[in-house]
Queue: 2 jobs
Job 1
Amino acid sequence: MTDERDRELNRLFAEADKPLDGEAFATWTMRSAGDGRRRHVVKILVVIVVVLLASMLFAAPMQQAAILVMNGLATPLFTIGDPVLGAALLPVNTIATPCALLFLMLRAARRRLFR
């Protein structure tokens, strides 16, 4: 370790040691804090407007996609001749049932393997 002091560091400390006018410093600080707050509010408003416009633009296509998926998952696996029995077995006789079982098996396997 040396006792030499860095000249540049000493110069920076000397510049920072100047007395500041208290009133001007407080005014500048409050103004810059208010500007930052205003910018933050404007950014939040811009994000909200963009999200609203995007949701209005993509609402119909997303709804159509959801309807297609729902109709696809509700398709019966096997046709049952008796309408009462077919209606009673419909919850387990859809494409969604094997998908749900596969999902649950994969989740259980992941939990056992990566505990």
Note: The mean pLDDT is 87.
Job 2
Amino acid sequence: MGNTIARTKILKIISLAKHPVNYSGIKDLVGNSFSRVTIYRMLIRLEKESLIYRFPDLKGDFRYSICSGSEETTPNNHFQCTVCDTVYKLEREPIEVSIPDDYLVHTVQVLTAGICPECKIFKEN
């Protein structure tokens, strides 16, 4: 499949985002340029092409982030602030995962919740 305007624009939005972005964030940035179906179709396509990956947040929405190339072999570690709802992609730290040998693991996602440093400052004052 070739590049389309929708594919190019959605990939650019995700790659330039400071934090993993959800559908609403993408929709806000594209406005009425693309339908809901087109946006979701492009997200599925980009994920199949291993250019982005998705993971569920605390609210049950999916967040999207750019693949660095090793998402399948290294656990993804994220932190979601319960105050501002921002999701942070944390630097990869070794995460021990104990899975029985008869399971074939493709990805591991870790989502930790709490208060981010910015919101913590406001809560302390």
Note: The longest strand covers residues 76-81.
